[in-house]
Amino acid sequence: DRQTLVAVLQFLRRSNLRESEEILRREARLLGDDLGSSVATVASSSPGVAAVAAVQPGKGGDRGGWSCCHSVSASSFRLPYKLLFCANSFAVGGVVVEDQPDVSAVLSAYNQQGDPTLYEEYYSGLKHFIECSLDCHRAELSQLFYPLFVHMYLELVYNQHESEAKSFFERFHGDQECYYQDDLRVLSGLTKKEHMKGNETMLDFRTSKFVLRISRDSYQLLKRHLQEKQNNQIWNIVQEHLYIDIFDGMPRSKQQIDAMVGSLAGEAKREANKAKVFFGLLKEPEFDVPLDDEDEEGENEEGKPKKKKPKKDSVGSKSKKQDPNAPPQNRIPLPELKDSDKLDKVMNMKEAARRVRLGPECLPSICFYTFLNAYQGLTAVDITDDSSMIVGGFADSTVRVWSVTPKKLRSVKTAADLSLIDKESDDVLERIMDEKTASELKILYGHSGPVYGTSFSPDRNYLLSCSEDGTVRLWSLQTFTCLVGYKGHNYPVWDTQFSPYGYYFVSGGHDRVARLWATDHYQPLRIFAGHLADVTCTRFHPNSNYIATGSADRTVRLWDVLNGNCVRIFTGHKGPIHSLAFSPNGRFLATGATDGRVLLWDIGHGLMVGELKGHTDTIYALRFSRDGEILASGSMDNTVRLWDAVKAFEDLETDDFTTATGHINLPENSQDLLLGTYMTKSTPVVHLHFTRRNLLLAAGAYSSQ
């Protein structure tokens, strides 16, 4: 608003930052004389303002990590950066806030504003008003209970009214929704002002506004009530700490709201999911598939269109030409195809010709790889695209690679032996391998903590592993040695994954950011910041232009690799997210979490389109079949479940109204989509993989308890 802008301009002028002042004034279209005329009003209305925050919010309304200008240089504010005034940052006792969200500054917004003995009365008054309002408004207004409860409690604690805070917590914590229980447990431990400093959950709640999506009618009703009652305490919290995303139209039902809420910072703003996303697939290079012999000719001729079908036709898209939703071919630089890659693509097409078309009448066979006696503690699994190798990451910091075909794993010969080889011979690639090293298992040593994520490169020459030691390591599968240790994360790295085109890879960890790397750069190319808690899982979109990240803040974000912007924020899970899978056609995303639910998302419209209930424990593995007809999910409840993806995504209601307001209508019963449940004796499922012919491979470690 205007007053805020003028305050910012004044601050810049006082600090002799003329260039920044000019840029901001041009962007805000404020003239010099406007500034002078507004000074008096600002001086009287905002005495506490002495620090300004420079934020570069991601395009999608993402928090973008505000930081207060401690010593602002003109170069801090180049044009692409927007300047925002941050109500959360005050100068405390004349000391300007440091670059990090300084705790005392963040907390000082909880200055004393009301009689502590009346807090319970204020809250119960509002509670009574909401419970007595019309049914259509009650569900929407009930969303206020949790954020108001937290902020009022923290305000009491901060102002050292400990007994009132304790009484307030005990009286009202039982009224909150069950999915906030973990957050409330953390909150209950904050009983003194000293506890609040350095508490991450606390800081998150304070620095990011809690987002509520409410219809205009419900909002007017609330506003009128609070103004009539002159309940300034609650009104101040609503204005200062909540972001109310108002939409025109019918209020949402309890069921519609429950489907979307539950994350650490409320729902996503509708603006956050408006950016255009190129979710289509890149055009595949054309190859002539050489036929092996007469027998296969007929099969292959039939099979060729089949190969194209899964690529373009799966789940709904009819185009055989360039996908209209695909990004430009050169939007991001992708590695050139080597001869070996072309050969592999030809093999892939031949396999695809023999692929089984799955569906409700034709379910896949499942082959389960059980890790027996895995006393080292199995923490991660991956399988190569051609299903020839399997890797396990273990808690004893080792990475173990097995061959699952009769062909054993061999290393390249020593330099002395290589010099004797005739480089012109046809079988040179075979000759460079040392038969003496052949074995079914290779153990890779190098990490100094449990290995939480592993990923094979598409060409099967490299392997990534990430660990509690804060590093991501790149291993050669020719020499079975470590080539690079990528250091960028300061804390444990929970997941890593290669791009479907190789060269790029992504990692996510406890430091709440995901990083995009290229194998030949030791520094990350992009840092994706915005999550409010650990980034627990990462996935590349099939076209490699986007990356999905799941987090312990209970949200899923989609990031644009080109510019690092957050283009989608999906809320709805009630626990940390541990698995992600894109459909083969790139249109949909499936996510699984500790709440035992699989949620389905339409990426183009930014909407939730399905909810699959059935698992009773965390879902660690999700995978679509090669043609996208079936979604397989694997869980800690020792089961693999198969779901009908075609049926889940047909007849989607994605009209403009639904997209604009988020009035989603999920089918009542997801059991109609469940095609089968397959139990193991006592093996949690940690990885799933469909072979090129649609055999489903599953993996996990047998647990004796």
From TrEMBL:
Belongs to the WD repeat TAF5 family. Residues 289-343 are annotated as: Disordered. The keyword Membrane does not apply. Gene3D superfamilies: TFIID subunit TAF5, NTD2 domain, YVTN repeat-like/Quinoprotein amine dehydrogenase. Keywords: Nucleus, Repeat, Transcription, Transcription regulation, WD repeat. Residues 114-242 form the TFIID subunit TAF5 NTD2 domain. Residues 312-323 have a biased composition (Basic and acidic residues). One of its GO terms (biological process) is transcription initiation at RNA polymerase II promoter. Pfam families: TFIID_NTD2 (PF04494), WD40 (PF00400). It is found in: Nucleus. The TFIID basal transcription factor complex plays a major role in the initiation of RNA polymerase II (Pol II)-dependent transcription. TFIID recognizes and binds promoters with or without a TATA box via its subunit TBP, a TATA-box-binding protein, and promotes assembly of the pre-initiation complex (PIC). The TFIID complex consists of TBP and TBP-associated factors (TAFs), including TAF1, TAF2, TAF3, TAF4, TAF5, TAF6, TAF7, TAF8, TAF9, TAF10, TAF11, TAF12 and TAF13. The TFIID complex structure can be divided into 3 modules TFIID-A, TFIID-B, and TFIID-C. Homodimer. Component of the TFIID basal transcription factor complex, composed of TATA-box-binding protein TBP, and a number of TBP-associated factors (TAFs), including TAF1, TAF2, TAF3, TAF4, TAF5, TAF6, TAF7, TAF8, TAF9, TAF10, TAF11, TAF12 and TAF13. The TFIID complex structure can be divided into 3 modules TFIID-A, TFIID-B, and TFIID-C. TAF5 forms the TFIID-A module together with TAF3 and TBP, and in TFIID-B with TAF8. Component of the TFTC-HAT complex, at least composed of TAF5L, TAF6L, TADA3L, SUPT3H/SPT3, TAF2, TAF4, TAF5, GCN5L2/GCN5, TAF10 and TRRAP. One of its GO terms (molecular function) is RNA polymerase II general transcription initiation factor activity. This is Transcription initiation factor TFIID subunit 5. InterPro entries: LisH, TFIID_NTD2, TFIID_NTD2_sf, WD40/YVTN_repeat-like_dom_sf, WD40_PAC1, WD40_repeat_CS, WD40_repeat_dom_sf, WD40_rpt. WD repeats lie at residues 371-412, 444-479, 486-517, 528-569, 570-603, 612-644.
